[in-house]
Design a protein that fits this description.
Layout (H helix, E strand, L loop, with lengths): L3 E4 L11 E2 L4 E4 L8 E5 L7 E5 L2 E5 L4 E5 L5 H14 L1 E4 L7 H24 L3 E7 L9 E6 L3 H19 L7 E2 L3 E5 L3 E6 L1 H7 L1 H4 L4 E2 L17
Parallel strand pairs: 10-13
Antiparallel strand pairs: 1-5, 2-7, 3-4, 3-8, 4-5, 6-7, 9-10, 9-14, 11-12, 12-13
Helix pairs in contact: 2-3
């Protein structure tokens, strides 16, 4: 029997990814390996992730466990995870860093202010169809997604540079993240994650639908650059 790996429209990294930790969360897996599964998480801070029949490797960091797809996983590793699943049937993780509700509200407000500043910078550089999504109720590893369309690779680079400069100069923040040549850039500020796509990749990854239950934040500035590319890029 093969171990199940996560299906997600983004790479399985700490910033985008398929992580299991936090809360007092109980994860249960179905027994039939030939079907598509949901990992049911009994916490409002977690979103369901889908699994299918595929191998994965497991790596750990200082405070979380990460599931990552891998092609070089040995049969012994498969057997080890099979034995754990048969023996225990579920895994429980406990989180020790939960904040009081008042502090969480303050943090949400600070994150929202920063997210709106990032969205405004993207708009100033003529990004299209900018969305700010409040994803905290769906995932535990960030609060806000910003999704925007650029119409050329130079424009993606220009937006990313302006966002990085603003974040460091005005908020003292430095982004981590990665990019795919000519298609997509991710800027991870921890509580705010920025996705800059070219139109085909925006349609392909379709994050708005994948996180369809996230609240969309109304933008106080014009966001008219929908489908046509801006001049100058």
């Amino acid at each position: 029997m093969k171990v199940h790996s996560c299906i997600h429209p983004l790479p399985c990294t700490p910033s985008t990814g398929i992580l299991l930790s936090g809360g007092l969360t109980e994860a249960k897996l179905a027994a039939n390996t030939r079907k598509l599964y949901s990992l049911t998480l009994n916490s409002s801070n977690y979103a369901p992730f889908h699994y299918k029949d595929q191998k994965f490797s497991r790596s750990s960091s200082s405070d979380f466990s990460t599931m990552a797809i891998g092609s070089n996983v040995s049969e012994d590793t498969d057997d080890m995870f099979d034995d754990l699943l048969r023996t225990h049937g579920k895994v429980v993780y406990k989180r020790n860093d939960q904040k009081p509700a008042s502090e969480e509200i303050d943090d949400d407000a600070e994150s929202l202010s920063f997210a709106m500043a990032v969205a405004k910078v993207a708009s100033d550089v003529k990004a299209g169809d900018i969305k700010v999504l409040f994803v905290k109720p769906l995932v535990y590893w960030t609060r806000f997604f910003i999704i925007a369309t650029a119409f050329s690779r130079p424009q993606i680079d220009a937006i990313g540079t302006r966002v990085r400069d603003m974040a460091e100069e005005q908020y003292g923040r430095v982004a981590s993240g990665d990019s795919k040549p000519n298609s997509w850039t991710l800027l991870d500020f921890g509580d705010v994650v920025v996705h800059l796509f070219l139109p085909p990749q925006r349609e392909y990854y379709n994050l708005e639908e994948f996180y369809g239950n996230a609240a969309s934040i109304e933008l106080p500035f014009e966001n008219q650059q929908q489908l046509r590319g801006p001049t100058g890029y």
